[in-house]
Amino acid sequence: MNEMAEAMAIVAPRILEESAYVFSEPLDGPDEPSDDWRPVGVQLRWEGPSNGAMRIWADPALLPVLAANMLGIEEDDPVCASKGLDAIKETLNMIVGNCLTEAWGPGPVFHLNIPETVAPELFGDDRAEGIWQAIEGRPVLFWCGT
Amino acid sequence: MGYTVLVVDDSETIRGALLKAFKMAKLPMEEVVQAGDGQEALAVLKDKWVDMVLTDINMPNMGGVELLAAMKADPNFKDIPVAVVSTEGSQTRMATLKEAGISGYLRKPCRPEEIRDLLHSVLGEWA
């Protein structure tokens, strides 16, 4: 699983830039959100030579930004609000697919499940182990585990 | 006049992003038809002729591999080119899909020029 965590740190910023034209940078400890932060969480599980899951916890305000950039429309377009969750799920899908190749090479076949939203209760444990990034100035936590 | 393409993906955002890419690549699109999974795609194909199908692999109800198999088994659809647009990068999986008859493969996220090159290679450049 360490391979996937390392791959995640490399691949996630690239996918975000290529798919949604947003740039990410490491978020330092003092800038991490407080305990009352209420992020949106999405998860994707995979099976194969390695089984695991990746989760993204994102500030809700980031979701319409991703949708707008992926669709090529303005952020204030009502479509962005309705497509934001789908946009971050598909972003996660692209990150996981590319991370698996980065970590395991092009040979192994993995089965990727459908991305899903996750219960907010999981965030507490994830924040201790995940990687914080700032995307468009908004906090995002990437977590990878089993 | 131009290409008529069926885009099959369970993500509305990805379908929209592909529509955006068609425009950015200045591809001559007659019509882009959409389906959310393989079952919907087969229903669309029964009513509408398309030049090509672009499909994701992992989708609910019926995925891209099953869609490809169903099309190749149907005399009405077996000659329609199918290309896969997926996050998966396994060469083993791609070899299997090529044996099953795909006409091309693009990995998400893909650039407009990659989509243009795929359509040109499969369908030819629109004169």
Short description:
The complex is a heterodimer of chains A (146) and B (127). Chain A has 146 residues and is an alpha+beta fold.
Describe the fold and architecture.
The complex is a heterodimer of chains A (146) and B (127). The mean pLDDT of chain A is 93. In chain A, a hairpin with a 2-residue loop joins strand 6 and strand 7. In chain A, strands 1, 2, 3, 4, 5, 6 and 7 form a seven-stranded antiparallel beta sheet that branches. The relative contact order of chain A is 0.28. Helix content of chain A is 42%, strand content 24%. Chain A has a single domain, classed as Chemotaxis protein chec (3-Layer(aba) Sandwich). In chain A, helix 1 packs across helix 3 (78-104) and helix 2 (63-71) packs across helix 3. With 146 residues, chain A is of the alpha+beta class. With 127 residues, chain B is of the alpha/beta class. Chain B has five helices and five strands, in the order βαβαβαβαβα. Chain B has a five-stranded parallel beta sheet with strand order 2-1-3-4-5. In chain B, helix 1 packs across helix 5 (112-123) and helix 2 packs parallel to helix 3 (64-72). The longest helix of chain B has 13 residues, at 12-24. Chain B starts with a strand and ends with a helix. The model of chain B has no long low-confidence stretch (mean pLDDT 95). Classes of the chains: A alpha+beta (146), B alpha/beta (127). The A-B interface holds A 15, 18-19, 67, 70-72, 83, 86-87, 89-90, 93-94, 96-98, 100-101, 106-114 and B 10-14, 16-17, 20, 24, 58-60, 86-93, 107-109, 111.
